[in-house]
Design goal:
This protein is of the alpha+beta class and about 325 residues long. The protein is about 45% helix and about 15% strand. The protein is built from 13 helices and nine strands. The strands form two sheets. Strands 3, 4, 5, 6, 7, 8 and 9 form a seven-stranded mixed β-sheet that branches.
Length: about 325
Amino acid sequence: MEKCVESLVIGGEEVEVLVVNDGSSDKTPEIADQLEKKYPGIVRAIHQPNKGHGGAVNTGLANAHGMFFKVVDSDDKVKPSAYMSILDTIRKNKDKEEGEKIDLLISNFVYDKEGASHHKVMEYRKTLPTGRIFSWDETHRFKKGEYILMHSVIYRTKLLKDCGMQLPEHCFYVDNIYVFTPMPHVKNMYYLDVNFYYYFIGRNDQSVNEEVMTRRLDQQARVNRIMIDYFSEGVRSGLIEKKSQLYKYMYNYLEIITTITSVLAIRSGEEDKLAIKDEVWEYLHEKDKGLYRKMRTGPFGTAIHLPGKGGRAIVLTAYRIARGIFGFN
């Protein structure tokens, strides 16, 4: 955590660093208070009973005074030169008229995978216009496996508060909700093609570790259902306009999350996990039959439902190939 905060305070007094101690039982509270004393007016320590990742993000947002809001996990870091470019972009946006302000600033992130000789960079230069404000209509089609993740985004604080973004407490994988539910409210985006965020990955106890995710499949499924609800209701209400670039992006994101839930269940081979997969698909069918048909007959939905042991073997082979290509945990 100290290394993480040290990488952030170089922004000086223009930046507010909120350290949320989410009921930690180690030396986190003491270190957080020390950092607040070391960097007065920049670092603020906030202590609360344990509420999980989502509860920590909610608390950070509730206490944020800055124009923009960025979530940084305590074992990650940022690149100084890219950080300065981000701050410079924000300064230039500061005095714009309300309708011209940036709602979402996007940058690249690096999979800082433990033990890897090559670190994959998630960048968007073929998908998003670079170095200018743009709308959803100006974006290109995102490739499979290419999505705007929590490590890529910096939201305008007012947008998050105005749209009422609140994450579930005591639940893992809520970062998918964080980069999903605010998107219909985002009108102006800006992509800065710099490798800003270094996402540490590879610890055996990390929440995104494959074995850990399988054990917590019920929480992955909970997030999956929340996303199904939001997307279906958003389309029904007109918040998400069908055939728009926003619709296509959000549909593809929901499809990949549903696929991940399903593949993890299939990989486990355990009856209770396979039941969770079936429950998610049944929930989708009950919630929105049209959305279910579209996803079920798509390439991912078809593959996931291949019958028997042979079908499962094909799914797992495809999964291993994808893991090798994309370098996830």
